[in-house]
Amino acid sequence: MLRFLPREGKFFDLFVDMAKNIEDASKELVELLKQYDHIPDRVQDLKDKEHLGDQMTHNLITRLNKTFITPIDREDIHELASKLDDVMDMIDAVASRMVLYKIDKPTEDAIRLAELIHSASTTIVKALRVLETHDHVIDHCIEINRLENEGDRISRIAIARLFDDGQDPFYVIKWKEIYEVLEKAIDKCEDVANVIEGVVVKNA
Length: 204
Prior knowledge:
Elements: H1 11-35, H2 39-66, H3 74-100, H4 108-129, H5 137-164, H6 169-202
Helix pairs in contact: 1-2, 1-3, 1-4, 2-3, 3-6, 4-5, 4-6, 5-6
């Protein structure tokens, strides 16, 4: 009977595709902050990737609802898809705020935080590529945790610097929020790593 039921539906491949879209978006975010030209077009490109991520999430959940036998627990598939979507949402939120707040020039701290998001996203791709085989997955999760700790450190220093430099209050308010969203994006990467680690432990 079981062999006639819908089976796993390549969920591991779908997760990798979602993560690669995030990796591409995080790379574009770094390039946006480093070059900082053609801002509306670059932000729209990131918005398009965010929409693509939403579609990927929708397609994965639709496939999940049609699949009787899954390679890992259904709730883990749903949670991993949700956490990946959260990372993309935060990357899009950072880019959108650069336009919304009419930022003239990104700070070095913002660029460094964006680079950490990209590093974490790249590591997520590596982890998901080997999730099915469990080959060094935990090592990748540990690296993402390290990047998140570094992001916390840089964000704290950056926000403290805002208040130490006697900046215009509106400048402080804008950049404090941008730093917090950048940090939150890295936090969301760690959330993905935590779900991946939980999957490995459950299926060891």
